[in-house]
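Field reference: "sequence" (input) and "structure" (output). Example, Magnesium chelatase, subunit ChlI:
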Amino acid sequence: MTIKPRTIGELREAGYTPLAVKEELERNLIKAMQSGEELFPGIQGFGETVIPQIINAILSHHDIVLLGEKGQAKTRIMRALIRFLDDEIPVIAGCEINDSPFEPICQSCKSKIAEHGEIVEIEWLQRDKRYGERLSPGTKIADLIGDLDPAKVAGGAPLASENALSFGLIPRMNRGIFAINELPDLEYLIQVSLFNILEERDVQIRGYPIRFPLDVALIFSANPDEYSRSGKIISQLKDRIGAEIKTHYPLSRDVGIKIIEQEAKVDVGEAHSLKVPLFMKEIVEQITIEARSSPYVNQKSGVSARLSITNYETLVANSRRRSITLGEKIVCPRISDINYLYTSSSGKIELDPFREESLSEHQVIGRVIESAIEKVFLERFEGAALDEMSVGVSGGKNIEVGDMVPSVDYKKIISDFTQLWEPVHELGGDEGDEVRASALEFVLEGLYLSGRLSRKKIGEMASYRGKA
């Protein structure tokens, strides 16, 4: 086991060469690229758009602002940069601002080295301790930069000396990464205080002649509409940020489904197994896609991927509730489970205040859900197939389904309406009673939404019948 240096002298003898934090990020990024590692694990859909721009910014030693609506992985990208820091770096022991043993910037460390020289002790700072983050609303200059400490001043420390200061978050992240979320929400005075950090890499506190040449990489996030709105961001601050990178929502439904599968927390327990048909996953993601283009939804606010994730979790939860109640072994979501997505969708869709038609949030969610189901259905069935299915259920007999109808009961519906067997089979209906029930409900709802069946809802039950 290698013994790490414990003093400045031992560190020097070991041949340690310090790097500026942006040089460190660059070096470790290049190593990861050359080894073929996945650079940003768990971040889906940005491989050909956002990530190349981030790489360029790191190679250029630029500070970064990520522009995107809510739920576009901005915070995750910020935190992912930690992996490009060294595992640990040496700092002067006890220093509040992580001073370099070879290039200290605070007076306390300089004095310590002047008095004790090479025997000054060092400690090793883990990389996860070198990342700091702050949400803008409510932030004060003292929080980010620092302020005079009344207790230290009362104790006799001169006002114009470092000994009178209480350091803020950014100085404490010296030799690390500091992230600020929702940059436009920062007060103007704080934006002004960031000028020197971005350009000169130093801070000034309370107008006193105390300056620290900080070594820090800054990354910000902002809503693009807020960022570009006149007066929200001081133009000089924008000018000092090296890279402006726009994030985006998944460019395809398949990517959205990958995010759902990665992020959703679903556990059906040891007594059950989970089987979610592809068309149900597609519907969940399509609901979010439809919301992102709905004229009733405020598109400037955006619709987060969290809508898909929580809807999927709710869908599985309700189908699990059915399995537990009815004693079924397989948890398989159906269309009738979608009735419960109103609770997980509420609060995640901001209505457009200027919409032409005055609809409630509940009504907008309902329209978005129906549009998603119809779109996924019509991607699978069209024309003659739809006509044949609708003719097959035009005998005037009602077909009743619901989230608490046992899956085995759907077998009789198929036997009574044989024309439905083929589309149900295409959807995986031969994979068991639970999948058959899910496929049949999808076909019936799709026929209703495409205008080929009528539907009457009674509580949580739905009754379908052919049109006269």
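The longest helix spans residues 306-326.
Residues 8-246 form a domain with the Rossmann fold fold (CATH 3.40.50.300).
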